[in-house]
TrEMBL record:
The lineage of its organism: Bacteria, Pseudomonadati, Pseudomonadota, Alphaproteobacteria, Hyphomicrobiales. It comes from the Bacteria. Residues 1-24 form the signal peptide. InterPro entries: BUG, Bug_dom1. SUPFAM superfamilies: Periplasmic binding protein-like II (SSF53850). Transmembrane segments: none annotated. This is Tripartite tricarboxylate transporter substrate binding protein.
């Protein structure tokens, strides 16, 4: 009789253990509510960053089991989107597709009036990709190498011009770093965004641009722009025969990153879920192919590593900004 009772009890014990196991697993994987998840992006639709944000949102929708909607909240160099995110509950339902510029540079620029401080009111969740840089000139440009450009800048101080998408952008500071390393003086021509800068570069109104490959790779491939050199070794994936800027300016390296940020104070379990979504996007063959075709390199890092990257960026850019006396007034 006793053995029979034990035999009958064993399946019930197994069932109970199964229920407990499932409950534990559910506790470890916090569910998002049924309301949509917003991914704010501070720049206009149609650019390479916007494309990357939408690729991530598509994968995250599947991983999180809840629709992720990209919202383009433009203005104030990405700070409208940053403020909307920082002012939202830290529950993972509102996140920011963030960049080097609006998370690290803007906090160090004198003269900038910040409605929120990204360094204290936002936190990194994970990096999705790195955007490698290239130095390009128009197809009719007389400059065939970085050496040609540097020689012209030294022969004509303050005459050679470079285009950027704005004061305090990664592109602006990258050119300042190059100028400081080579001890040359060039003219900064800031535009309202990358497309306006590229238009004048293609037409020959400015001499060159040092910018991310995501914005120029199609122009280089079509021949409307000429690539003179790369800003970091990752660019060799796209143009293996191109020289490095560091060949002329030893130690020079520049790139940008794109990733996900959220309001400070997000629970660790929610951050982990988002990390899993970002990692899944990086490992998705279709996403990787799309990014690589547009000059961007999939490169996942978790929240802790992204926090370290941002701190280093702030230190490095702070020094460049002070040395060049850059202000936004």
């Amino acid at each position: 009789m006793r053995n029979r009772m034990l035999a009958l009890a064993m399946p019930l014990v197994g069932l109970a253990l199964t229920v407990v196991t499932l409950q534990a697993a559910t506790a470890q994987q916090p569910a998002f509510s049924d309301r949509p998840i917003r991914m704010n992006y501070g720049f206009a639709a149609g650019g390479s960053g916007d494309m990357a944000a939408r690729l991530l949102a598509d994968v995250a929708t599947k991983v999180l089991g809840q629709r992720v909607v990209v919202e383009n909240r433009t203005g104030a160099n990405g700070m409208i989107a940053a403020e909307a995110t920082a002012r939202s509950p830290a529950d993972g339902h509102t996140v920011l597709f963030c960049t080097t510029g609006n998370m690290t540079i803007i906090t160090e620029l004198p003269g900038v009036q910040l409605s929120v401080n990204p360094a204290t009111e936002l936190m990194g969740i994970g990096q999705l990709l790195r955007s490698t840089f290239g130095l390009v000139v128009g197809k009719e440009s007389p400059y065939r190498s970085v050496q040609d450009l540097v020689a012209a800048a030294r022969a004509n101080p303050g005459k050679i011009s470079y285009a950027t998408p704005g004061v305090g952008s990664v592109q602006h500071l990258s050119n300042e770093i190059l100028s400081q390393k080579l001890n040359i003086k060039m003219v900064h021509v800031p535009y309202r965004g990358s497309q306006a800068a590229l238009h004048d570069l293609v037409s020959g109104r400015v001499d060159f641009s040092l910018t991310n490959l995501g914005d120029i790779i199609s122009h280089v491939r079509s021949g409307s722009l000429r690539l003179l050199a790369l800003g970091d070794p990752l660019g060799k994936r796209f143009f293996p025969d191109a020289p490095m800027i560091s060949d002329v300016a030893p130690g020079f390296e520049t790139y940008a990153w794109f990733g996900l940020c959220g309001p400070t104070g997000m629970p660790a379990a929610v951050v982990k879920r988002w990390e899993e979504a970002i990692k899944a996007a990086v490992e998705d063959p279709a996403v990787s192919e799309k990014l690589l075709n547009n000059g961007m390199v999939p490169a996942f890092t978790d929240a802790a590593a992204l926090a370290q990257t941002m701190e280093k960026n702030r230190r490095d850019y702070r020094e460049v900004i002070r040395a060049a006396n850059i202000r936004v007034d």
